[in-house]
Amino acid sequence: MKTDYIHPILSCAQSREWEETLLGNDSGRQWEAMNRAGSALADSLSLDIPERMGNRTPEAALILVGKGHNGGDAIIALRHILNRFGAMRAFLVFPSGLTRVRPLVRRCLDDLQVAHSSRLSFASLRKGNAPSIASQIRGLIGGVPIDLCLDGVLGMQFRPPLRSPVRELLEVVNGMKEIALRAAVDIPTGLGDHSDDLAFKVDFTYATGIAKRPLFEASNRSRTGRIRYLDLGFFDGCVAVDSAGVLTDGILEFRRELRDSQVHKKTFGHLFIVGGSANMPGAILMAVRAALKSGVGLVTAFVPESIAAEAAANFPEAMWVALPQNPTDGGLTLEGVKRVLPLVSRATGWVIGPGMGTGRETEAFIKGILDLSDQPVLLDADALQPCIVGRDWRCRPCVLTPHVGEFIRLSQRSPGVSVDDSEVMEFAGSHHLTVCLKGSPTRIVHGRWPIASPYGGPVLARGGSGDLLAGLVGGRIAIPGNDFARAVCQGVAWHGWAADRLAREKGQVAAKATDILDFL
Questions:
Q1: Other C-beta atoms within 10 Å of 255: how many?
Q2: What is the residue-wise DSSP string for 388-414?
Q3: What are the structural domains, with CATH classification, of the chain?
Q4: Quick one: which of 107, 96, 103, 231 has its CA closest to 152?
Q5: What gap in Å lies between CA 516 and CA 239, rounded to an integer?
Q6: pLDDT higher than threshold 80 for residue 278
């Protein structure tokens, strides 16, 4: 598959081969790549730091510098960060010693000292040194609270086991409660194609140039923090992706495109959203609100008659169709299919499920609606039932948006078992549909390979965020001419990207799901 918005996820060994082919032993190319990496790392860190610190300016950084190019990336990033935060001090720790760094790392260090020598302090660790590494670190920082700790020690070159003094350094730093934000350059020290039982404790990992496979393995998810992919131009142009992939910022370029001057609302499609119940009206309202901002031309919502009038008064941009409801649970009834039938030809895409409930009559209603059209459909929430998903999807594009618990129920696996990408791929392939598995990171399985989204974070861990995702993705798949897989990826990335912006401005705690809409 060739694409301009997905880059491959490679093993560390494959990544080394790719970089050697691209950069070889040309120190000029290596220097240019290191500067791109350091600059991109500083840019991304500067965006993420406010999520932890709010408006407070960071004052101290602890930088762990290896002798290889990962250490050079960290030093260059530090130089840019010190340029931005004028009162910041930096403590640099060299576990292999200052004298053993590679020539380009020495060049990075010389540039840093020329620019900021008065704000730097150093510690050079060697195996067997006394006093202890803990004492050396404490002596270096002198009790100063550390706002940022950046791991640039080993990166993708790591092969287990961790040896002294790196192991001792990680044990000390991982135990330091005074560190506010922990970040790793490329891949946390201790992880690799074969990982150690100990790794740098991390909040963010910034994959530089190539997304490394160990970051996305189920066994490492608790050890990588949030993954950011920094595109350094290693895969310029359309790339053939024959393995797992990661979304790039190119997936969001549609937001900048100018629309033709002669278009009208029907040019951008008509999304039908079906859901809601008297007991759970909020989910369908959130899905509609997100769909209204997705770029689709028209939105019609089919909801129980008891909530239609109030919904229309609050969100008049959508068209609201009242359907008969079950007096017992307030859900939609099979009779409603007849009311939808005369309007079906208008739809270019569907979202079915938010807030519907799971009664038998609602289930029959969903099946009846699905038989009316062959337009693209998104099934979410209460529509994610084995008896609904198990139908033949070869005649129309379909995407499911389950969280892990819903996927376990759909695939009829034992609760509490972790879900591996291969299992999602098998499920999606056997049912001929696309699966968007919400999580950290969210993965889209379309065709043979999973695609990871490096956007979003814990601010999404609240009720309603999935309904917003359903509305956004639904709006994108309903736009005529939009490639289905691309549309799904657009919605997922946009949702996560807006959530990142929300968290940077308001933090992760005092935010509600619908705040995401203000950051699209």
A1: 11
A2: HHTS--TTS-EEE--BHHHHHHHTTPP
A3: 2-252 (3.40.50.10260), 261-519 (3.40.1190.20)
A4: 96
A5: 31
A6: yes
Residue 165 is encoded by which pair of tokens? 């003094």
Determine phi and psi for 351, rounding to 5 degrees: -125, 125
Cα gap 309→325, rounded to integer Å = 14
Collapse the DSSP code of 220 into the 3-class scheme (helix H, G, I; strand E, B; otherwise coil) and give the result. Answer: helix
**Which amino acid is located at 5 in the chain?**
Y
Contacting residues for 449 by C-beta, under 8 A, at least 6 apart: 1, 241, 242, 243, 244, 245, 425
Chain segment 219-255, per-residue pLDDT in tens: 999 999 999 999 999 998 767 677 899 999 999 999 9
* Rg of the chain, C-alpha, whole Å: 25
Instruction: Tell whether the model's pLDDT for residue 418 goes beyond 80.
Output: no
Distance from C-alpha of 69 to C-alpha of 103, rounded to nearest angstrom: 9
Q: What is the 3-state secondary structure (H, E, C) of 337-360?
A: HHHHHHHHHHCCEEEECCCCCCCH
pLDDT band, residue 415 (cuts 50/70/90): confident
Identity (one letter) of the amino acid at 353?
A: G
- Which tens digits make up the pLDDT trace of 73-130? 999 999 999 999 999 999 999 999 888 899 999 999 999 999 999 999 999 987 666 6
pTM for the complete prediction?
0.95
- Please tell me the predicted confidence (pLDDT) of residue 416: 67
Provide the terminal-to-terminal Cα distance of the chain, rounded to the nearest Å.
29
Beta partners for residue 208, in sequence order: 230
Q: What average pLDDT is seen over the chain?
A: 94
Q: Write out the two tokens for 27.
A: 């120190």
User: What single-letter DSSP state applies at residue 93?
Assistant: E
On whether the CB atoms of residues 235 and 314 are closer than 8 A, the answer is: no
Look at residue 157 in the predicted model and tell me its pLDDT. Answer: 87
DSSP assignment, residue 215? G
Q: Which helix (H) or strand (E) holds 463?
A: none
* Contact by Cβ (8 Å): 381, 463: no
Tokens of 242: 């024959």
Kindly state the DSSP code that residue 114 receives in the 8-state scheme: H
37-61 mean pLDDT? 95
Residue 130's alpha-carbon distances to 125, 133, 134, 173, 269, in angstroms, are: 10, 8, 10, 18, 70
In which residue are the tokens 């490329």 written? 186
CA-to-CA separations, 462 to 276, 320, 380, 458, 497, in angstroms, rounded: 19, 27, 16, 8, 16
Average pLDDT rounded to a whole number, residues 460-466: 97
